[in-house]
Amino acid sequence: xxxxxxxxxxxxxxxxxxxxxxxxxxxxxxxxxxxxxxxxxxxxxxxxxxxxxxxxxxxxxxxxxxxxxxxxxxxxxxxxxxxxxxxxxxxxxxxxxxxxxxxxxxxxxxxxxxxxxxxxxxxxxxxxxxxxxxxxxxxxxxxxxxxxxxxxxxxxxxxxxxxxxxxxxxxxxxxxxxxxxxxxxxxxxxxxx
Length: 193
Hints:
single chain, alpha/beta, UDP N-Acetylglucosamine Acyltransferase, domain 1, 5-stranded parallel beta sheet, 4 helices, 19 strands, globular
């Protein structure tokens, strides 16, 4: 039995995806400033690309980390889960509150003669635009492209839909409930008025 466990462990360590999951299982649980600095130094090396000054708090989990693109000054809160197998981009100055979940794949389910788990996946990339803030426990579904400066209210479910830049959005499904104050200045300075 021990020999079989060691053989399986060697196979896991030889696989780069599983090896990262082992590293992350340790790194995500290290508290305090030392944990923060270790995650900041090690985890972004596994991203498809990473900007400067990326903050990763405790208990962040990833799938498909090699397809995660992260810009500068990104803040990833506690207990975030990013399923990036279909491609996820977090542009500059994005903030993810605690418990945010971002999903870029979904199960196929059209064939009723097969179990859903055996039908494969649909991959649909997600882009969180520059300066967006996703509040606590927001769920982002596959294919979402949030415009620059959007604020998503805590507990909302963001589906595939167009949201104007600098919108305040909330609900399930999300809808625009307001605009940020600086939107008029933005439009005036970008010749959009």
